[in-house]
Automatic annotation (TrEMBL):
GO terms for molecular function: molybdate ion transmembrane transporter activity. GO terms for cellular component: membrane. The keyword Secreted does not apply. This is Molybdate-anion transporter isoform X1. InterPro entries: MFS_trans_sf, MOT2/MFSD5. It comes from the Eukaryota. It comes from Ananas comosus (Pineapple). The lineage of its organism: Eukaryota, Viridiplantae, Streptophyta, Embryophyta, Tracheophyta. The keyword Transmembrane applies. Keywords: Membrane, Transmembrane, Transmembrane helix. Pfam families: MFS_5.
Amino acid sequence: MTVVIEREEWELNPLAYVFLFVSCFASIFLCPYFSKGSAKGAASAYPFDLGPSAPFLRFQRSFLLIYSIASVLFGASSYFPVIEVLQTISGEYEYMQYGLGREQMALVLAAGAAGGLFLGTFSGILFDMIGPRNACMLYCVLHLLVGLLKTVRWLRSMWVESICLALASSVFHFCFETWMVTEHEKHGHKQDLLNDTFWLMTFYESASLVGSQGVANILVKDLHKKFSRLGAFAALFAIITILYIRKAWKGNQDVSIIGSYRKSFSAHVLRDKKIWILVWAQASIHFSVVVFWFLWAPTIVADGREVHLSRIYPCFIGSRMLGSTAFPLFSGIASSLHTEDSLTASFVIAAAALSIVVYDYQEIGLLVILFCIFHACVGFILPSLAKLRSMYLPNELRGGMITLSLAPANAVILLVLINRAYNRSIENSTIMALAACGLLTAGACIHILRRWRKHPRQNWRNL
């Protein structure tokens, strides 16, 4: 007699997509109502109600178009399809196609983390001096190289791809933001409009990631193609981005004198405790996001649970979009809260969501909700940190500061990957708990920054 074992597969309610879409739509289009109702006579904090600011609107649209294309490029080149089997990490199938075992996979990823640590850390300082336009061009060239490596079989090298993607990721974190802020100031646009662009960057980036993943899923239906179509798609988008930047981006930033830059960087970044607080906050959110993308799949499919992981992914990105739309509501002119207050709360909520996942076994539905809460907080944190950088940091030092903040996170990621490659003595729960602790300490640091802003003459040792 044959015994049939039935395995129940968990499915996401389709209404979740509708809820996220409607929530984002309502959050964006109800923003003017709350802003104007609370701040009479104040300038509109709503990015689509600019009145006479037509030049800024043209500038913003042009930049967001470039940024969206670059985000699609980032999502396509670094795409790892989620196969409907139980895996330790998302994207494991691509490595298995090239004969890599678990330890080799960890070492390949560690090579990328090392590239981001040793090369990416200094890339921001370098391109602060020679101009963000060159950084954006390097970003596109790196993705073009990765696309060619994926397309041409005899050129294939997972090690080179990992290092190029890690370096491109480090450059992406600062190059477009630095260019936008520099051009915004050069054209004399209002400072409050800059804050609108920050949250729109997060919103458009998330939307582009969803679109790129959808296209990638279509292109790699036949997994035996070994992702050559995906590589060609990434290479094509890299060429389009390069041509668009060359056409729409006229002129270069003046090259900074090394001695002058070093003196300014030392005074404003290395010796300013406020900047170090922002460095730690950025490092914490970067580390937690990387840890999440490594561990969310094995956490959800633990104990042999079956689920369509590729259908859950859009909910996370949609939650990030929703979180970004909350930024103008809590950080605009009409808000009674300071940026530091709402940012502290976001860090604490994100840490709490990860802590529940770490210390308490949960059903899949609750895990998805907790991860969505985490991503909604990330969507709010990213533009908030960008706003604080504009408040406390000179624009010409922005790239060096951002890449410096990524160094601690990349160092910890490198150590964890090397450990997992050789002895696996660190559990997944321990890694996620470390990310939660980092978020809590970041929230505490932002709270200290708020107190210092409230009492600027108070000695730091008394805070």
